[in-house]
């Protein structure tokens, strides 16, 4: 093999890395374009899916005047003669005469003609069996439309369907909703040097990403089965191509760990070329995590699939997850682009020249401040374990104490609310 250096005119310069904010926008757009079509599903099956249409009421909430307490629906001044009972689920006859009352249960429909509801614990009986007491000035029932009017939009399309949303939809009278399904994801772990059990030693390190990345993906709303996690994959090009082809048969997104550079055993780029992939993003001007990538493939069925190449260093891999995978998955699910909250730096954070610096921070939610954590090397996970997210220090700047900066939150558990 010749050792001569190719003439400068024959070399192909690598494209410059994408800016971090540009990369986020680009991957979100391709994800949204590839979002699966909406489907109708029963409420019991939509947990974790995303509303494809706004959630609107099919009736006013409540649909009729509803007693807030157990007691007596009365008409006029007391004491009142008892003329019946109203339980939840029935339609009462009107109270036609002053001085009459019906016993009423919480949640029951208040009869027409009632002027007040008297709480049972604030009532008494007269010797002749009538009901006495003084109703409170404020009405003890919920008026129709108090929570929502008929046809009102309660939640926009793109809202994640969690238990609270499902319950609200049921209360509005829905049996099914139009939703987008959860994306399917798989993980391929690259690297012959990795151990999958026991402590590291003898030149081999423990795989920290195989056990953790699927959990991060689930927090972003993906479906990841144990069988979808494969590796370590042998450090050969045929093994990489075969593993990618198998994973892409079912998954919308395949994440890989390691192999994103061009070293002697880095086969991801040649494997993507062999599969006919095109790059959405190939390297991002961010530190740590620079050699991340996202590629797109179109299957024989015409469906778009994606491969997210995460760097092998653990913290760099998580930076790639929050930078590329999170906005991609938001697009695939038909959700809005993840908005970045902000916090005030409690201490200085250095910049990284022309690169965006994502710096691990712990948040004081009461004070609204972000505190840098220790042990933040790209190969370290100790700092990540005590952090809430990454402070964004934009290119060409440094973060000074008191500066207000964006923060990329780490993904939450299902049902948790953003800070």
Question: From the helix content, strand content and strand pairing, which structural class follows?
Answer: alpha/beta
Largest sheet: 6 strands, mixed
Straight-line distance between termini = 58 Å
Percent of sequence in beta strands: 25-35%
Poorly predicted runs of 5 or more residues: 1-12
Q: How are the strands of the largest sheet arranged?
A: 18-15-19-23-22-20
The best one-word shape is elongated
Number of domains: 4
Helical residue percent?
Answer: 10-25%
CATH class group of the largest domain: Alpha Beta
Radius of gyration, Cα only, in angstroms?
30 Å
Total number of beta strands: 28
Proper CATH architecture of the largest domain: 3-Layer(aba) Sandwich
Number of helices: 7
Pfam families: MoCF_biosynth (PF00994), MoeA_C (PF03454), MoeA_N (PF03453)
Protein name: Molybdopterin molybdenumtransferase
Catalytic activity: adenylyl-molybdopterin + molybdate = Mo-molybdopterin + AMP + H(+)
Family: Belongs to the MoeA family.
List the keywords.
419 residues, alpha/beta, Molybdenum Cofactor Biosythetic Enzyme, Chain A, Molybdopterin biosynthesis moea protein, domain 2, Molybdopterin biosynthesis moeA protein, domain 3, 4 domains, 6-stranded mixed sheet, 5-stranded mixed barrel, 7 helices, disordered N terminus
What would you say about this model in short?
With 419 residues, this protein is α/β, with parallel strands linked by helices.
Structural notes for this entry:
Helix content is 18%, strand content 28%. With 419 residues, the protein is of the alpha/beta class. It folds into 4 domains: 13-36 and 182-332, MoaB/Mog-like domain (Molybdenum Cofactor Biosythetic Enzyme, Chain A, 3-Layer(aba) Sandwich), CATH 3.40.980.10; 43-60 and 146-180, Molybdopterin biosynthesis moea protein, domain 2, CATH 3.90.105; 66-142, Molybdopterin biosynthesis moeA protein, domain 3, CATH 2.170.190; 342-409, MoeA, C-terminal, domain IV (Beta-clip). It has a 6-stranded mixed sheet with strand order 18-15-19-23-22-20, with helices on both faces. It has a 5-stranded mixed beta barrel with strand order 24-26-25-27-28.
């Amino acid at each position: 093999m010749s050792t001569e250096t190719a003439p400068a005119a024959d070399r192909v310069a690598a494209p410059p890395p994408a800016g971090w904010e540009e990369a986020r926008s680009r991957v979100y757009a391709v994800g949204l374009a590839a979002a699966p079509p909406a489907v109708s599903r029963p409420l019991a099956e939509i947990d974790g899916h995303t509303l494809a249409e706004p959630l609107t009421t099919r009736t006013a909430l409540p649909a009729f005047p509803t007693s807030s307490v157990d007691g007596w629906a009365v008409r006029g001044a007391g004491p009142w003669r008892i003329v019946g009972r109203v339980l939840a689920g029935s339609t009462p006859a009107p109270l036609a005469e002053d001085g009459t009352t019906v016993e009423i249960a919480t949640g029951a429909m208040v009869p027409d003609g009632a002027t007040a509801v008297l709480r049972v614990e604030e009532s008494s009986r007269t010797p002749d069996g009538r009901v006495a007491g003084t109703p409170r000035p404020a009405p003890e029932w919920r008026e129709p439309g108090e929570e929502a009017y008929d046809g009102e939009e309660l939640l926009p399309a793109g809202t994640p369907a969690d238990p609270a949303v499902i319950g609200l939809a049921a209360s509005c009278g829905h049996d099914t909703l139009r939703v987008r399904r959860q994306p399917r994801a798989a993980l391929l772990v690259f690297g012959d040097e990795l151990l999958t059990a026991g402590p590291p030693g003898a030149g081999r390190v423990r795989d920290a990403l195989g056990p953790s990345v699927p959990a991060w993906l689930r927090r972003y709303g993906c479906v990841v089965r144990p069988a979808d996690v494969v590796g370590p994959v042998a450090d050969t090009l045929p093994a990489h191509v075969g593993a990618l082809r198998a994973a892409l048969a079912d998954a919308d997104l395949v994440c890989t760990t390691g192999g994103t550079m061009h070293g002697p055993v880095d086969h991801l780029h040649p494997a993507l070329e062999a599969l006919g992939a095109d790059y959405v993003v190939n390297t991002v001007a961010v530190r740590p995590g620079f050699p991340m990538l996202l590629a797109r493939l179109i299957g024989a069925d015409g469906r778009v699939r994606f491969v997210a190449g995460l760097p092998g260093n653990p913290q760099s891999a998580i930076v790639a997850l929050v930078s590329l995978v999170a906005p991609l998955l938001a697009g695939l699910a038909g959700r809005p682009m993840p908005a970045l909250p902000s916090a005030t730096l409690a201490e200085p954070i250095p910049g990284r020249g022309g690169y965006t610096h994502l710096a691990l921070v712990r948040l004081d939610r009461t004070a609204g401040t972000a505190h840098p954590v220790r042990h933040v090397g790209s190969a370290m996970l100790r700092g990540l374990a005590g952090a809430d997210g990454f402070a964004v220090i934009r290119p060409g700047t440094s973060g000074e104490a008191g500066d207000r900066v964006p923060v990329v939150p780490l993904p939450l558990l299902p049902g948790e609310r953003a800070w």
